[in-house]
């Protein structure tokens, strides 16, 4: 099975950026193929990776629900979902991207969701890594629409409210411990002057602090110019990202 990393935390802490950097570095380090999952309904992982997904799982779910009554003869709901899933996988250079899209709305489509989950699970063994960008509320994790996770990165930034979010994530995921092997706090964009205070605030957490990602003006410029993140190859921020990969990947990452 592939190694899997999920990135969680308050909005604006840098989840999508870190997920995109992880995917880019895995590809640069030839650790692919990587399956990138955008599990934030406000999907923007594709933008950072330079790919434009045509359809999301949310779109597919709606489509299946619409089509259910008028399926072509010989086609089951499962066939339809499977065919649709192959369509929603956006193939890129060294990685594939799946976009979850919007949530389920009011109805309960448990059978359909289970079907989608099964097909996604069937796909994952063909990848070396799975990297998932989550929405702030951790819906997918708590609703068990996602598979097992080797490492959950809880991102904390300068905003003190991001510590509150991290506490909530710690509480929610305590119940899901069998499905999340390890949890780590990653600090991002914390000014040097505040670092000591932040470290003290992290002490009560049961989740260990893995690494600090400093604010990086080159990264900001690359994103602002709409360039690809692989242009940051070999830069200090990519080395920090590589350390995360090695921690999560263990020996596999060095093989
Ligand atoms: N280490 C960093 N250095 C510079 N800018 C960063 C860094 N991390 C994130 N950013 C910027 O911060 C903003 C929020 O990041 P984003 O990844 O969209 O957060 P989230 O997905 O958690 O809402 C973006 O403009 C992003 O470019
Ligand atoms: Mg985001």
Q: How many structural domains can be distinguished in the coordinates?
A: 1
Count of β-strands:
8
Count of helical regions = 11
| Mean of residue pLDDT values | 86
Q: Which series of helices and strands comes N to C?
A: EHEHHHEEHEHEHEHEHHH
Could you walk me through the main structural features you see in this protein, from its secondary elements to its overall organization?
By secondary structure, the chain is an alpha/beta fold. It has a single domain (3-254), classed as Rossmann fold (3-Layer(aba) Sandwich). It contains eleven helices and eight strands. The chain has helices spanning 15-28, 45-49, 57-67, 77-88, 110-123, 139-142, 161-174, 192-202, 217-224, 236-249, 251-254; strands spanning 3-9, 34-39, 90-91, 95-99, 129-134, 149-156, 180-188, 209-213. The chain has an eight-stranded mixed sheet. A hairpin with a 3-residue loop joins strand 3 (90-91) and strand 4 (95-99). The radius of gyration is 18 Å and the shape is globular. Residues 15-16, 40, 44 line the site of magnesium ion.
